[in-house]
Design a protein that fits this description.
By secondary structure, this protein is mainly alpha-helical. It has one domain. The protein has ten helices and no strands.
Length: about 200
């Protein structure tokens, strides 16, 4: 963990800002903007890029992926620039929670993978780049989005230590645990050999 630099009030402020950024439902916004219908009634009903892809609109899915990652990067970089590293980590956690549990969607958000990768890129870009590379490699081999996310997340805490970014190890471990918990139904389907491949009907 970083040295505490900010007051409790400042940290609370950045928690609120991070949550607000993370809770922007880009998947819903973009599917409506592209005239693709209600994302909640498509596929798994998830608001993330994988489910947007099930509309058949690849540009909308790609834009969702980029924007969901970008809001994580923005939360970290803004907090770091205006407050400090402790605020950046608080904002990172809050942004992830905002994406997964947005108040204006009844606390039913996405699974947080793109935002997680964006947070890592903002917190320590070498870790983020490695996590993205692992996701891409696993997806290319398996064609299973959830498996790619789980493998990338599982390796992330170790990568923090391997590249000398121990100051984010505990936060990354916590985020990884949340990623795994959010994918518990996917894990059950993976175990049973029933998890759909990228572009399938569930996720």
């Amino acid at each position: 963990m970083p040295v505490s630099e900010s007051s409790l009030l400042i940290l609370l402020l950045w928690a609120i800002i991070g949550y607000a950024l993370g809770a922007i439902p880009f998947g819903l916004i973009l599917t409506r903007a592209f005239g693709l219908g209600n994302l909640r009634e498509i596929g798994s009903g998830n608001i993330g890029a994988t489910n947007v892809l099930r509309t058949g609109n690849k540009p909308a899915a790609a834009a969702t992926l980029v924007l969901d990652a970008a809001k994580g990067v923005a939360a970290v970089l803004l907090a770091r620039a205006l407050a400090g590293e402790d605020a950046a980590q608080v904002a990172a956690l809050a942004a992830f929670l905002g994406h997964c549990f947005p108040v204006w969607l009844g606390f039913k958000g996405g699974k947080g993978v793109a935002t997680f990768l964006g947070l890592l890129l903002g917190l320590a870009w070498p870790v983020g780049v490695l996590a993205c590379a692992i996701w891409l490699a696993t997806a290319a081999i398996s064609r299973i989005s959830s498996l790619s996310a789980l493998v990338a997340a599982a390796w992330s805490p170790l990568m923090c230590l391997l590249v000398g970014q121990g100051q984010i190890f505990l936060l990354t471990l916590l985020l990884t645990s949340l990623i795994i918990w959010r994918h518990r139904t996917n894990l059950a389907r993976l175990k049973d050999g029933q998890e759909p491949r990228i572009g399938g009907s569930r996720g």
